[in-house]
Amino acid sequence: MKNLLLSLIIIIYSASATFAFEDCLISTNKKLSDIKIEDNTVIDVFPLYTIMNEKNTLIIHPLKRGNTRFSVLKNNKDIVLFNVKVTENETSIEPIEGFDILQIDCPPNFYEFELDLPPIFIMEEDS
């Protein structure tokens, strides 16, 4: 009984944090390399490898709440610094010219959709 109760508590708490943080994509038209993160306990930044191997997209994955910065080398000559703020509901990155920033997993609003009613079957009587 004690193990069952403990298992239920663990399941409830793990399910409540499902939509806690939101990942982001940063892309540009030049090659991005040499990623350096100021506080790697707040975010993880890694490149997205594509079929064309362009290396121009980064994924920012938040790990906990906080503020941090990270830098990348753009086109092997320009260092670009990004400021990141992570809250439970949002990951915000200050916009920089020449970069597109996209949040990729917004939590759903539970009241924004309607479910279809189940089909109604009418039985016809044989004559």
Summed up, what is this model?
This protein has 1 helix and 8 strands. The protein has 127 residues and is mostly beta strands.
The helix/strand order is: HEEEEEEEE
Largest sheet: 4 strands, antiparallel
Mean pLDDT: 82
The share of residues in extended strands comes to 35-45%
Secondary structure: helix percent:
10-25%
Q: What's the shape?
A: extended
Across the major sheet, the strand order is 3-4-1-8
Helix count, DSSP H or I runs of 4 or more residues: 1
How many strands appear in the DSSP assignment? 8
Based on CA atoms alone, the radius of gyration comes out at 22 Å
Poorly predicted spans: none
Distance between the termini: 59 Å
Question: How would you classify the helix and strand content by structural class?
Answer: mainly beta
Structural write-up:
The chain is mainly β. Helices cover about 10% and strands about 35% of the residues. The chain has a 4-stranded antiparallel β-sheet, with no helix packed on it. A hairpin with a 3-residue loop joins strand 5 and strand 6 (about 80-85). The N and C termini lie far apart (about 60 Å).
